[in-house]
Write a structure and sequence with these properties.
The protein is built from five helices and seven strands, in the order E-H-H-H-E-E-E-H-E-H-E-E. The protein has 149 residues and is an alpha+beta fold. Strand 6 (132-137) and strand 7 (143-147) form a beta hairpin.
C-alpha cells in the first residue's frame, strides 16, 4: 500500500468528520461533534485560517487518518485513524508531523487529553512515544499528557 501524507486542506473536512465516527475507540458522530462546537464550518475555517493545522494520511486517494492541533496552545486536538489501518505506523507518522510543525512554530511543550484507562489503546500509544502524565484532567475527564519536543 502506498501511504501519502500531506498538509490538511479545507476540502478534507467532510472526510475528516466522517472518519471521526468510524474510529475503533472514542468515535464521535456528527451530532456529538456539533454538541462540542465542532462543525463542518468551524473545522474548515480552522484549517483555512491556520488556527487548526493538520496532516492527513491517504491511501489511493482515500483519507485513512489525520492529526490536528491548536496553533495557539500547542494542543494535539485529535489523532484519528480508520481501524483497518491501525498498527501500520500511520498514526505515529501523523503525530510526528504535527510535533515537527509545532516545534517549528517554537513550542517547547505540547499537550493532549487522553483516556486514563490502560485498556484503551491511546493510553499506551502516547506513553510509548514519550508523552508523560501531568496529573491533571481536562473538562472531558481525559488525563492531560505533555511532550517536550
Amino acid at each position: 500500500m502506498n501511504f501519502i501524507y500531506r498538509k490538511a486542506i479545507p476540502e478534507d473536512t467532510p472526510a475528516c468528520i466522517a472518519l471521526r465516527g468510524k474510529t475503533r475507540e472514542n468515535a464521535f458522530s456528527v451530532e456529538q461533534l456539533k454538541a462540542l462546537g465542532i462543525t463542518l464550518e468551524s473545522w474548515r475555517s480552522g484549517i483555512g485560517d491556520g488556527s487548526l493545522p493538520g496532516y492527513v494520511g491517504t491511501v489511493e486517494g482515500e483519507l485513512v487518518g489525520y492529526c490536528f492541533g491548536d496553533r495557539n496552545t500547542g494542543e494535539i486536538a485529535v489523532l484519528a485513524l480508520l481501524p483497518e489501518y491501525e498498527g501500520k505506523g500511520i498514526g505515529k507518522t501523523l503525530l510526528d508531523l504535527m510535533i515537527q510543525e509545532f516545534k517549528g512554530l517554537g513550542f517547547k511543550r505540547l499537550f493532549l487529553g487522553c483516556s486514563s484507562d490502560p485498556k484503551v489503546r491511546s493510553h499506551g500509544f502516547y506513553r510509548h512515544l514519550g508523552w508523560k502524565s501531568t496529573g491533571a484532567f481536562d473538562a472531558a475527564n481525559d488525563e492531560v499528557l505533555e511532550y517536550f519536543p
